[in-house]
Structure formats: structure tokens, C-alpha cells
Amino acid sequence: MCIRDSHWPALQAHWLTMLAGLAMIRAVETHSPLQLGLKWPNDLMLYDAKGPTPQWCKTGGILLETTLSADHLQQAILGIGLNVNIPRQHLPSGPTPATSLLAAGGKALDRPSLLAQLLLELETLYERADAGQSPQPAWDSRLITRNHPVRVSDDNHVLEGIALGSDKWGRLLVRDAQGAVHHIAAGDVTLRS
């Protein structure tokens, strides 16, 4: 998806990540009974009960690149990746376990139908957002980090606390041990036990 010369305020650019996450969930849930959630800021997570250890695993991701002017979104390119029919033995290993819709659900899905549904959902959500309807409440309700201990890190600092959800712009709200609430715009989030 590519957007040029938007009237959106610069802070609203994060809505595109929210729209993509919700569109992915809605498309998959139209074709499968799998349980899906979102890991802030841009991962589609699937509860894989059939894996070696039942847990939330990454099954997709979103990449957003933007060009911003002083006060509005000028251009955006949105990339979406989704592990659909990858057999379990071909999934990559990493710090966050990976899965696919096939591995977790036990049956292959028709990729063209899934893609068509994803594009339909994304267009519908984009039109609503462009008319001013925020995707944040629906997106926030699907965050698997809500009310859980998290560690947020970036190049310069680490913050540990409880993820409270997100604000209207999609920034992660984390309450630290002293009770202060931090609005996180970017960083790597790890769920802590």
C-alpha cells in the first residue's frame, strides 16, 4: 500500500500500522478459527496450541516507512508479511518463536482468497480512518501485551513495567515501578514472565 500527500497529522501515521494489524486479523479469522493477537508495535501473533510449547508465536509483521513534513504525513509505504502455508519444519528459529497458519491450524489456506480478504479489510479500515474513525480502540483490544509485564528497549535505554495499552496515536503506555506512565513511540517490546 502506498499513500501520497495525505492530510493526516504526522502523529496519525501510526494508524497505518494499526489498520494493517487489524486487517490481517480480520482476514485470517474469516478463513480460520485460529486465535490471533497483536504484539506492539507491529507483530501479528498467533496462539499456537499445537507447537512443542503452547504459546504466542509470531506469524506476521508490518513494516511502515513514512515521509513526514513538519505537520502531516506526506508519503507512506506499508509492507505486510504473513506466514501462511509454511510447514513447521521450515519455520525460522529466533528469540520470538515463529509459526504459520498451516502449522498452528493443521490445514493449508487458499492464499489468493486470503490476500483478497486482507486487501478488502485494509481498504475498508483505511476509508474509515481517512474519514476520522480511529482504529485505536479495536487495535488496543487485540494487544497481547496489555496488562502484562514488559521490557521495552531501544538503542539508548531499557524500560521495564506493566503495559497498560496504547494511547490514541498508538504509542505504548507502560507504567514503571515508581508509577510513572511512559508513552513509547518506538522500541523493541519483550513480554516478561
Explain the overall architecture.
The structure is a single chain. By secondary structure, this protein is of the alpha+beta class. 25% of the residues lie in helices and 33% in strands. The protein has four helices and ten strands, in the order βαββββαααβββββ. The protein has helices spanning 15-31, 101-105, 111-130, 136-141; strands spanning 2-4, 36-39, 43-48, 55-68, 73-82, 149-153, 158-166, 172-175, 181-184, 188-191. The strands form two sheets. It has a five-stranded antiparallel β-sheet with strand order 1-5-4-3-2. Helix 1 runs antiparallel to helix 3. The termini are far apart.
| Helical content (DSSP H or I, runs of 4+) | 10-25%
* Strands ordered across the widest β-sheet: 1-5-4-3-2
Oligomeric grouping of the chains: single chain
Number of helices, counting only DSSP H or I runs of 4 residues or more: 4
The amount of beta strand, in percent, is 25-35%
Structural class by helix and strand composition: alpha+beta
Shape: globular
Radius of gyration: 17 Å
